[in-house]
Design goal:
By secondary structure, the protein is of the alpha+beta class. The chain contains 4 helices and 18 strands.
Length: about 280
């Protein structure tokens, strides 16, 4: 049966009960819920076959594109630190597990609920179905070239590969690939995370895009100032940092340079939002 699981088959309806039809293929009988439509004994039915949560053979006529031979996007529904992540690929009453063995070693870079993974299926000797994330070559084959006229566009981007050199992403609206250098992000994104990334360049050698997760320079002050206000509001209206604080303390708290911090403080003081003294900075009443 294992060679059938995770594939699309055509089988013969041989029996039924009140809840299901029974579809036979190569001596294996799969249950098909009557909620999916009406059939007659002797009909040929095409559908995706799998085992449900109780390991019972099932067939569904619903559209399931992730199979043993084809990739498709699934949505992460649950994270189990001892097992991996569960992904909804459209199979009724079943989610596919992507094993921790094929996820990043650092668990903070694992996908979270709502993230997207492009996977195909694999069946082990015990008949268990697992999800396998697509290798970079799959993305390279499925995508088209980017263009050298997309500067400053902000596009949705799904993280599909994590490397020390940076983050590789797929742009679903454009069917293109992009790259985010570590200097163009404040923190490393998760595998499967859906980002809003801004185009900052074009790689002629492979026709992909260089992207940034940072705001434009003229937006930095406003964003930094808002970050400081939010921090103050969540800390009782006071912080020990001021424009005399060390660059290291500022960087560890806000992830920005001392120059950016001082500019943001200056703007907030002009707007009479904050005041400083030797002890730190506090919100104005």
């Amino acid at each position: 049966m294992n060679e059938l699981l995770g594939t699309i088959i055509s089988g013969l309806v041989t029996d039924e009960n009140a809840q299901a039809y029974f579809v036979q293929k190569d001596g294996v009988t799969f249950a098909l819920s009557k909620e999916e439509g009406q059939h007659q004994l002797g009909d040929m039915v095409k559908g995706f076959v799998y085992t449900d949560m109780k390991q019972k053979p099932r067939l569904t006529t619903k559209d399931v594109a992730s199979t043993q031979t084809s990739y498709d996007w699934g949505t992460v529904t649950e994270v189990r630190r001892d097992l991996g992540v569960f992904v909804d690929t459209g199979i009724p009453d079943k989610e596919i597990v992507v094993s921790l063995d094929v996820l990043p070693e650092m668990k903070e870079l694992w996908p979270k609920k709502g993230d997207k993974l492009y996977i195909k299926l694999d069946v082990d000797r015990k008949g268990r179905i697992w999800g396998l994330p697509a290798e970079p070559e799959i993305f390279q084959k499925m995508t088209g070239p980017a263009y050298d006229n997309m500067q400053n566009q902000t596009l949705p981007a799904i993280v599909y590969r994590l490397k020390l050199s940076g983050t590789f992403v797929y742009l679903p609206e454009n069917n293109m690939l992009g790259f985010i250098h570590p200097s163009e992000r404040y923190a490393e994104p998760r595998l499967g995370q859906v980002l809003d990334a801004r185009v900052i360049g074009f790689r002629d050698i492979d026709r992909t895009l260089n992207l940034s997760l940072k705001p434009r320079s003229f937006e930095m002050l406003e964003n930094d100032a808002q970050m400081i206000l939010t921090y103050l509001e969540s800390n009782g209206g006071f912080m020990t940092l001021n424009d005399k604080s060390s660059p290291e303390d500022i960087k560890s708290t806000f992830g920005i340079s001392k120059g950016q911090f001082k500019k943001a403080l200056g703007g907030l003081m002009k707007a009479k939002k904050i005041k400083q003294d030797s002890l730190g900075t506090k919100l104005m009443d």
